[in-house]
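Case study 2.
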Amino acid sequence: MPDDDDNIIRFPTFVRVEGEQLPAAFEPIRCYVLVNRVAAKVPLNDWASASAGRHSTFKLTGLDPWRVAETFVGSVHISTVFLGIDHRHFGDGPPLLFETMIFGGSLEGFQNRCSTWDEAEAMHAEALDQVRRGHLRVVK
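Prediction:
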């Protein structure tokens, strides 16, 4: 009888030592919500509910409660938002929960992340400054 083992995929077995901490990359998704502009860690279901509430608020009011700032300079769009999911996948440090991105212009694709609302406001201001410096014209 032919051996059908060629059609079986075997995965390696991982052994976890009791009490051993998993590296951050292997932890479950770390979710946060905003409470008066301060991030609070919550289970995934609570984050999902908060995210749905965010979208409902936006539909009703046109305001995004997770948006820190949004600026347009000509055709360049600078956006800073609360992500709600920790994007620090490797290494130690506080969770990276806010993101600034630049769309358009010479800084297209710029991206930076930070941990707090106050840091996010400063990060947005810095990105705006960078964009404006790139849009200065010398008048003779």
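Residues 23-134 form one domain.
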